[in-house]
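Reviewer comment 2.1 asked that we show a complete input and output for one of the modelled complexes. We chose the lanosterol case, as it is the one discussed in the main text.
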Amino acid sequence: MSMRKRGPVNGHSNGRLNGSTTKTTRIEDPKTDYSRWRLRDDRGIQTWHYLQTEEEMEAWPQSIADRHFMGLDTGLPALPRANNPMQAAENGLEFYSKLQLEPGNWACEYGGPMFLLPGFVITLHVTGMPLALPEQTEIIRYIFNMQNLGEKNGGDGGWGLHIEGDSSVFGTAMNYTTLRLLGVSPEDPRMRKARGCLYDLGGALNGPHWAKFWLSLLGVMEWEVVNPVPPEFWLLPDWVPISPWRWWIHMRQVFLPMGFVWSKRWVYPKADTDPIVRQLRQELFTHPHEEIAWARYRNAISPIDNYNPKSWLLDLINYILVLVWVPYLRFGWLVKRAEAFVWKLIQIEDANSDHADLAPVNSPMNLLACYIQEGPEAHSVKRHRERLQEYLWLTKDGMLCCGTNGVQNWDTSFTIQAVYEIGLAEKPEHRQMLLKALEFLEDQQILEHAVGYEGSSAYSDPPTAKTSAECGWRHPRRGAWGFSNRAQGYTVSDCTSEGIKATLMLQTLRDPNNASKNLFPQVIPEQRIKWAADILLTMQNANGACSSYEATRGSEHLELLNAAEVFGRIMVEYDYPECTTACVTALERFTQVYPDYRTADIHSFITRAIAWIRTNQRADGSWYGSWGICFTYAGFFALESLATQGETYANSERVRRACQFFLDRQNEDGGWGESYKSCETGKWCQHPDGSQVVNTAWAAIAMMKGEYPHKEPLERAVKLLMHRQQPNGEWLQEGIEGVFNKSCMISYPNYKFIFPIQALGMYARRFGDASRL
Ligand code: LAN
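Response of the prediction step:
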């Protein structure tokens, strides 16, 4: 095959090869009128709306939170200067409390991953359900704003896996495609630059499996380039160690619709006549499209995308599937059975979440499956389309797709706890805010098990981790809290834990003026808190640790089948010090309030969990965090776990080592700054921008939980937090805070409020507030 000459046909003339000289001066993209946008929060279901008329705007004024989310001036006044940490905490809370939404929750943008909008937009394109114009405009702006241009990551014109990442084929091919589908011209200088970057990386043929999947169904690639996703895997008996029901929920819920679409080799019906698809066939490759021998590129991948190379075993399996299974053994009846079963499981997922689905990868894929199976007019398709809106979020840089349909329960639970922990929950001025937050948690607790669970052979009350095909292998969930809202409907061990803790903190708080009176009503009845504890008790692994959505069901060896080259450790549930701590601290608090309920179970759970936390500490005193960056995040949890057992600096070598780990990494300015590279490499990596308020708060809280006795390093940390605080009480956005699957970063913008407030208040309570720092 001949390499296509780089020429203007493909828009290469200003590609990076000779395009590094191209001037990509900032181009002002069309922008919507930000005064017209509003966030609606309907009992935790959050959607952005663009108002058309003056009357609508008058009837629905923009809120402070709206303005904050969009990066507009909130107009909030400068507060009296904080002279000590407690005043700084109160100023922080004063600002942050203004961001609470009507139903009582906090919200924020939840971006970071750069592979979510593409799936979203491709799905809407191939199903003929375009986004509204204001959304299109803002998505274009967002994607351009995240492009690696100028100073950003070498400015090569591509996009990474996440907003801070180096350009990859996945990021670049998919975001380029998205922009084109939204109407951006290939002649835009930034698009030329992007193509140059893509060609330098080998073109879209060097993309990972997921890129090839999306581009094949769009009709830009041919299905032979996609490694097999056989839905017949789902027909394996439960006892088989590699059965999909044992996989991490995100993997199996993506594998499900992906297998359905792959099995049908479905292609966008208008691909051959759609001018954009036809042009993309010319724009995304370094070879002429018609000459590409697709099957030869199944395993082609650029090194930058290949974070987690496929194992020899998976390569072998793929060969067998491609050369033997698909052509000779995949009989029609088997295909039919597999597709029918997978379709049933898709329907279960849709029914359990009213078509919101687990996350914004499987949600558009399920929409597509419904479209293929039931046609464009089906209720399932329409409902999916509506619910997809919940994933969109407007920021100052444009519109993004969130990693989940919000952060409602998670941020709200943490907020309650921070305020409680620093003694401000008793103050009358915070009562209304906290009561609303508690009422929100009440409204969002999941009160029914998943479809089919109660009638299944796995059912018991109280539940166990047992599950069965009859309910789509869902974990029991009655009493749980999810990460976002009740509609999404998945328990997460730590989200349920944080929900329990926040609830119990408020519901047991005594009135400081009358010790026999509770300060807050019993909004969530005892029975429901017990249900939540029951759920936690189902979530422990055999070794004592806890995972995210379920107890671990499969062996780590399943990682050999990890086909998504861009992520690591995704195939099964793993043990996490963060989740384990959350469960320990929740059950600890629970058993203090309800000492007679399942006492032995709880005691054994806590003992085993703590033993695991101890063994999970690394030789250097740290713990590796999987959901926040990174050692500061996990240390903040682990030391809290140990503290519940009375294990502190004074009596524990472990805690001393953990504190030393932090002390050795404290910056001159008193803060800590940890880069996301820590997550990727497993080694502490200093943040290039120096101290970060979120890392600083986590490290300081960790050391205070561990009762580190010397004031000086903590005082320096607290000074940094005070110094970075703005006159109106807020902190400004710094580096990205969260992570998943080791390689993909995700933003938690409210952390910069919650944890500094908590750290400042804890310091004040511990070391006294009087001294002016
Ligand atoms: C999240 C967000 C929250 C997070 C915590 C609660 C912080 C964690 O302690 C447990 C795991 C959980 C719930 C989690 C799991 C993976 C998610 C859902 C995400 C990181 C947000 C986005 C991510 C999801 C996998 C994104 C879609 C990508 C795929 C690879 C399917």
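The chain has a mean pLDDT of 95. We note this here for comparison with the apo prediction described in Section 3.2.
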